[in-house]
Automatic annotation (TrEMBL):
Gene3D superfamilies named in the record: 3.30.450.40, Winged helix-like DNA-binding domain superfamily/Winged helix DNA-binding domain
Lineage start: Bacteria, Pseudomonadati, Pseudomonadota, Alphaproteobacteria, Rhodobacterales
Highest taxon above the source species: Bacteria
NCBIfam families documented for this protein: TransRegBhcR
Protein name: Transcriptional regulator, IclR family
Ranges for domain IclR-ED: 92-275
Amino acid sequence: MAEDRVPDPAAGRARGRPKAWDDKTAQNTIKSLDRAMQVFEHLSQKQGVTLSELAADLSQSPATVYRILVTLEQRDLVEFDPVAQHWQIGPQAFLIGARFLRRTSLVDRARPILRDLMEQTGETANLGIAREAAVLFVSQVETQASIRAFFPPGTLSPMHASGIGKALLSQMPDDRLARLLASHPRERFTDKTLTAPEALIADLAVSRRRGYAIDDEEKTDGMRCIAAPVFDMHGEAVAGLSVSGPSTRIGLPEIAGLAAAVTRAAATLSAAMGAPAKY
């Protein structure tokens, strides 16, 4: 006969984390899983690599990396090309990523707005969200011009050298911005990249006042981007919307007209996301 138990009032309460959820010590991490995720993430950034290349990149033994790859392969997260002897991301990774995008209506609501923006401006239209100190591009409508910008969904770009990144940074509270700048180094990509905190902060102040940011060949020589923030129902910047293209088409005289189109599109998307009227 089972012994009587005193009901635990917390037993029936669903929790997303245990009480000590913020404890990141070794006892609460799975090293083998962490190592597998390192392999998976690196492979996603460097498609089509051999086992020996992947092992060398990660300073792991080929035997260990191979076991990880075979395990991921069984879940269709990676796949092997026997002809090229290359490992690459598998179809299940795309399905998981698609589920991430479906958790919010942002991408669905943005799609027709991006298409209209591309048709109005003749340049590639992009949608991105913040991921630590980078921009994660989640949607794009490409121009048909032969020379064009290309940021396929899943691409990461440093915020300090990205139009969308600077649009999002310009909306950050000062204390959060200071912490981010202090904790992440800023790589110089071109002579115009803003790496000094003072120069970047000054540029962000201008971006905030005018309502849009400009990547003036700061990531890639010969390419410009104009971006505006997208706000949600709480008035928080949750994404950025931009047009990007070669500086031969996006010259200084064209910036004002393109910026007007971008800010209108961002305002339309913000309204669709429930943002207050002032956004």
